[in-house]
Amino acid sequence: MTAFRWVALNSTSDLGALASILGDEYGPKKVAQRLEADLSDAVKGLLVELHYVDKDYRSTYYHFYAKQGRHYRDDCVRLHFFDASVSFEEAELRLSCPDSLTDHYFGYMVLRPTGIATVGRSVLSPDVRKGACRSIVVADHKAHVLGHRLLVKGFPSMDQHVDIAVCAHVACWSILRHYSERYSIYREHLTHDVTMMAQDFNPGGLVPSLGLTVANAERVFQQAGTFPLLVTRRPKDPDPEFFRQIGAYLESGFPLFASMRSREHAIAIVGHEWVPKRDWPSGGLKFSWDEVARLCVVDDNYLPYHSMPALGSGTPYSIDDVDAFIVPLPEKVFYSAEAVDRLCPAVHKHFHKLLGLPSADQLNVRYFVTTASSLREFIRERASEFDPALRNALMTLPLTQFVWVVEFATESQWGSRQVCARAIADATASVRDPLPLWAIHSLDRALVFDRRSRMGTPATNASLMQYPTTVSGFSRMERNLRPTQPK
Questions:
Q1: Model confidence over 159-203: pLDDT tens digits?
Q2: In the beta sheet, which residues pair with residue 271?
Q3: Are 333 and 367 in contact (CB under 8 A)?
Q4: Integer-rounded Cα radius of gyration of the chain
Q5: What is the pLDDT of residue 213?
Q6: What does the alpha-carbon distance between residue 35 and residue 38 come to, in Å, rounded to a whole number?
Q7: Are 288 and 252 in contact (CB under 8 A)?
Q8: Three-state SS letters, the chain
């Protein structure tokens, strides 16, 4: 029978009360220490849901823990986090709030009765995580409690089980759980599913604890119905193209499975934070990755949204420790970030005079994948920025479902979240396609390419448009990551 307890928090130090409510098998003291260290004081109420049936834990319980000589409980505890507007009447089992309860809900955390590494399936809002990065990949996750359907925007996380699942399993699981909540095409995969998907056959209870190779992780994502792309770091140091691809896929809203072979560890990279401009390079294009100061990661050793430095060394690691990553792509993205990275300088070289663009050393480039529907929605929302002829041309392009967007900005425009030009490339193009563009436009000119024509090349079937300049810059398109709102 489910029971509930309420812990009122004047500060996060009051979380020590968990030890008087929960048994040692849930590790309440260690959990309280982690929450106290990393949660903001905006969390003022904690609802403890006892005897909670967690499907992820049950998947491992029936296939592993129930087969052991040591006895394990089959139920979990779930913690729900609220702000000061919420109160709880225990006698009536009623949560009270002056308005929508969801607006004052910061997520949940499941505790497993395993004694060690007890934090199970959890989704916390990055708004209450101390030091969270500014831009993070999130999805809506729901929780049903006491007749309420509560929503929290976040990224799923858990501790590794240590025995049946380790860090790489957890990184795969968290990404797949995000996909199943964010996109209806992907089904839910439980913890035990992930341990089995990595293998060609059922290896028994021991083998999963020995870890996963990058090839095993690729297999997990492939079995889950995604199209994983493995990108490995070249031996040269540094490898700027490798890191720019990390930035591009994050900007596209894709979480990344990252391998750190030297540390025998794997994490999920789920966000980043830009810093005010640094000194611009003396020649050539500057890339938005050069502005990234830190990355947001989901690491089973920490609460979610742990920060990792994008430059230099860090504790316990930095981006320099990442030697490979996997991005689980949808089916129709054939043109890679690596190909777009090569395309950017070529586009500027061939079209900057025709479109009146600044020289390369004055421009910052940012590129990402989005859907055609999202691009058109963006154009519609900012219709006043576009000349009617340009707007109509972009809205009627026969785009594929996914497109690459390349944005060019001067130093001042970058600082004001604007761009001076935007190219739209075909994400289904072959990497050997010499010109995979649908269109490229500046403030007063545009080239529109006919990719449907069977005669000639897109370049020979391009039409040039000219229109009066009405704005000093177009708004930067930022739709794939959620800006954190610290509380």
A1: 988 776 688 889 999 999 999 999 999 999 998 899 888 877 665
A2: 136, 296
A3: no
A4: 24
A5: 83
A6: 5
A7: no
A8: CCEEEEEECCCHHHHHHHHHHCCHHHCHHHHHHHHHHHECCCCCEEEEEEEECCHHHHHHHHHCHHHCCCCCCCCEEEEEEECCCCEEECCCCEEECCCCHHHHEEEEEEECCCCCCCEEEEEECHHHECCCCCEECCEEEEEEECCEEEEEEEEEECCCCCCCCCHHHHHHHHHHHHHHHHCCCCCCCCHHHHHHHCCCCCCCCCHHHHCCCHHHHHHHHHHCCCEEEEEECCCCCCCHHHHHHHHHHHHCCCCEEEEEHHHCEEEEEEEEEECCCCCCCCCCCEEHHHHEEEEEEECCCCCCCEEEECCCCCCCCCHHHCCEEEEEECCCCCCCHHHHHHHHHHHHHHHHHHHCCCCHHHCEEEEEEEEHHHHHHHHHHCHHHCCHHHHHHHHCCCCCCEEEEEEEECHHHHHCCEECEEEEEECCCCCCCCCCEEEEECCCEEEEECCCCCCCCCCCCEEEEECCCCCCCEECCCCCCEECCCC
Q: pTM higher than 0.90 for the full model?
A: yes
CB 274 within 8 A of CB 291: yes
What is the C-alpha separation between 183 and 398, in angstroms, rounded? Answer: 24
pLDDT of 394-449, one tens digit each? 999 999 999 999 999 998 999 899 999 999 999 999 998 888 999 999 999 999 99
- Tell me how far apart the alpha carbons of residues 338 and 116 are, in angstroms, rounded to a whole number: 42
